[in-house]
Design goal:
By secondary structure, the protein is α+β, with helices and mostly antiparallel strands. The protein is built from two helices and five strands, in the order βαββββα. It has a single domain, classed as S-adenosylmethionine decarboxylase. The protein is globular and about 50 Å long.
Length: 102
Amino acid sequence: MYKHTEANIYSSKFWTVCTEPEELRNTFERVLKEVDFKIVLFNEHHFTAQGYTCFWLLGESHLAIHTFPESGKSYVELSSCNKIKLDLFILKIAILKNISTE
């Protein structure tokens, strides 16, 4: 038969005023590594007119970023089954001056 397993997913969503793809990619990847998230895959797409989307597939779920240069902000969403790593990631991002959050 099958076994029923409960899973917990924790999520944090916020906006940042940074819209520069390279800065976003470098900053968020550095913090993912500092918190010891396991990066399985990274992918990104630059839209023709404007805008950028990237995501990291993590051993503990995913991080996605979508820029909206016309509005001067980017949307960030981190989901994880590891609440301790997620909370530490959010703490580290909150103190970065180049990634001020709204």
